[in-house]
Amino acid sequence: EIVLTQSPGTLSLSPGDRATLSCRASQIVSSSYLAWYQQKPGQAPRLLIYGASRRATGIPDRFSGSGSGTDFTLTISRLEPEDFAVYYCQQYGYSPFGGGTKVEIK
Amino acid sequence: QVQLVESGGGLVKPGGSRRLSCVASGFTVSDYYMSWIRQAPGKGLEWVSYISSHDGATIYYADSVKGRFTISRDNTENSVYLQMNILRAEDTAVYYCAASEADNAFDIWGQGTVVTVSS
More exposed terminus of chain B, fewer Cβ within 10 Å: N or C? Predict the structure, then answer.
């Protein structure tokens, strides 16, 4: 079973800052199946990125995904107030999610 | 409008059973790969079960629920179900239904239904 480790656990930043979130896999992951989700308190998760780098419908271009093999990154170029949330990566399918990174206001 | 609506959550005693329902609107559930995902209070997301599109012949379960939970689909009701048996305290969570059109990411999510297992 592939284990996804996200870092850092918490990222304290200010609006306008750049956020860089890491997702590291215990084995090589097919980029086609690496996804990132955003979850705000009391809400269901929302798909941001699929196929490691493809933005889902309606996702602003300040969100970008990159990486391959075992190392993947979600970058938010300039944080907006609505971007403060928890972010999860997952190798789609029948596998665990990463533990999540909370992006909080500094 | 494309949406998923879960129901069936509630308070259940340890060892009890519960059946969760997920009704789709705006799309045909049999054309999508469907999963159940849960989130325990204050914790992260845990994938629980998966059923493939069309013939639904491919089904997977997380080790934590294998042998106790059963996923199924009713095309006439445009719904997916999760039958949960022998419930444990650690099954307490918000249960989300999620769909994937291309079998590569969960692009449609329900709002979740809460299951609490407690005596």
Answer: N
Residue matched to tokens 């909080």: A104
Residues of B in contact with A92 (CB under 8 A): 100, 103-106
Contact present, B73 and B58 (Cβ < 8 Å):
no
Tell me the per-residue pLDDT of A22-35, one tens digit each, with 9 for 90 and over. 999 999 998 888 99
A58 touches B: beta carbon within 8 Å: no
CA dihedral B99, B36, B45, A43 (to 10 degrees): 60
Amino acid at B49: S
Among B47, B103, B111, select the one facing A95 at the smallest CB separation.
B47
Put the strands of the sheet holding A19-29 in their side by side order. Answer: A4-7, A19-29, A63-76
Mean pLDDT over residues B44-60, rounded?
93
**pLDDT at position B25 over 90:** yes
Candidates B36, B52, B53, B109, partner chain A, best to mutate (most A CBs within 10 A):
B109
CA of A44 to nearest chain B CA: how many angstroms apart?
5
pLDDT digits (tens, 9 = 90+) for A65-102: 999 999 999 999 999 999 999 999 999 877 789 999 99
Paired tokens of B30 = 């049999």
User: Which chain A residues touch B109 with a CB distance below 8 Å?
Assistant: 44-47
